[in-house]
Amino acid sequence: MRIPVIIGLVLFSLFLCMYSPCHASRSEIEYLQKMMNSQSSSLGSVLDANWKHLNSKDSFFSSMSIGQKDGSMEADKVDSLPRQPKGLEFNQYAGYVTVDAYSGRALFYYFVESPQDSLRKPLVLWLNGGPGCSSFGVGAMLELGPFRVNSDGETLYANEYAWNKVANIIFLESPAGVGFSYSNSTSDYKSSGDKRTADDTYMFLINWLERFPQYKGRDFYITGESYAGHYVPELADTIITKKKNINHTNINLKGIAIGNGYFDGVLNFKAMIDYIWTHALNSDETHEAILSTCNFTSGNFSEKCYNALISASMEIGNIDGYNIYAPICHVLPKAKNKTTSSMKEIDPCAEFYVIAYLNHPEVQQALHANITGLPYPWTVCSGLDWNDTPITMLPTIKKLIASGIRVWLYSGDLDIVCSVTSTRYFINKLNLTIKTPWRPWYTNEEVGGYVVGYEGLTFATVRGAGHMVPRNQPERALAMITSFLKGELPPIA
Questions:
Q1: Separation between Cα atoms, residue 109 and residue 178, nearest integer Å
Q2: Keywords on this record (predicted)?
Q3: H or E stretch including 240?
Q4: Where are the alpha helices (H) located in 247-349, listed in sequence order?
Q5: Is 62 labeled as catalytic in the residue annotation?
Q6: pLDDT, tens digit (0-9, with 9 covering 90-100), for 339-386
Q7: Is 467 an active-site residue?
Q8: Marked catalytic residue, from 415, 419, 422, 483
Q9: Is 42 one of the catalytic residues?
Q10: Cα–Cα–Cα angle for 294, 300, 305, nearest 5°?
Q11: Among the options 25, 65, 135, 226, which is catalytic?
């Protein structure tokens, strides 16, 4: 998700930490810098070994909790959220699923079924990135869920472009320590990382399907944005591998879709530099100085390189790095009397309305959330210690393409941090054959973006969207994801 970002600080942090993943809010910057500064140059080989161990047949279930009977679909039913709009008819559920009984690790989810024909529509898991940001507060309440929060922080209004129009959607707060998700072992918060997040999310799905058995075998898709460029492919790889090794057939994985994903540290860094210059955000002189003094591959930057990067950040000024043409929230807003908002507006302060709403006790009670009395308020992003993050997702994406599942990468074209340029550089590294040449796609007789079909992968852009595509361009995002679920390219006219 995004709140106003002082882009100089973002750039400086990301430039100093070349492999720093995409993040959502200014509060994450110090945490990400600390995390990435602790990485060693040998991290990639260590993580390769960890992932081989993760995907071995005997390594997985020693401490996990399959088939935990600690809840029920009926108990998780949400009759209505406080002050939600009237006249909306769909089932919604929320609660906890235990993923590790020994540690007391439980993940919070929010699930909305489609208002029409939910029994025939696919099941979709949505994951926000960070790492450490809430898929419920961000994904559901700011982007693609059925409700958004008005500026009073008290009432909700309907999202007419909610994705549950075309699918049944799970929003999962993962890993433990994010949002309402928790562990009874505080040491878990210091040992988070890609590997355990994939473990826990897999166990969540296995146990959630026991609670909702009508979805066993349903067409299943994994979607997400930002650092979900790691979460989504890693989870998909885990599902496919476990299905081969232990013959779990309840998860009928059909495809993945990742928006403005963080896939490769080196490529992301180089793409950020090129995107800034090609969008007239810094001078020719500074751009040339960066290219001539910075070694993008090794990360060994000279003093001249650092000076050029600082010049770039100064030239850009105070804009939102997640949507370069969007307004920014200048001050922490106070509660307003206004109770109606518009899907046509980008409210840069909307995150604060969500924070206010989700910290109301009656809201948490309706959601069956915070049942253990967490000693801290709900927040958008949590500063977890992150212990493993592969340098690149290239091998994993190649495996998924080879598996035959549907793979879509999409990008809003106004994001600096995980830019459309970065996604294109990443796809070029895959060396795929083009099946359908680059062309525009349309909604309401306007260009919604552009699309190109490769052998095994589809790449789509969403015109006028930033890092959070469903928030910035909700109608175009819904059209795009509808095409993805149908297995069709977005409409040509």
A1: 11
A2: Carboxypeptidase, Hydrolase, Protease
A3: helix 228-246
A4: 265-278, 284-293, 303-316
A5: no
A6: 566 666 789 999 999 999 999 999 999 999 999 999 999 999 998 899
A7: yes
A8: 415
A9: no
A10: 35
A11: 226
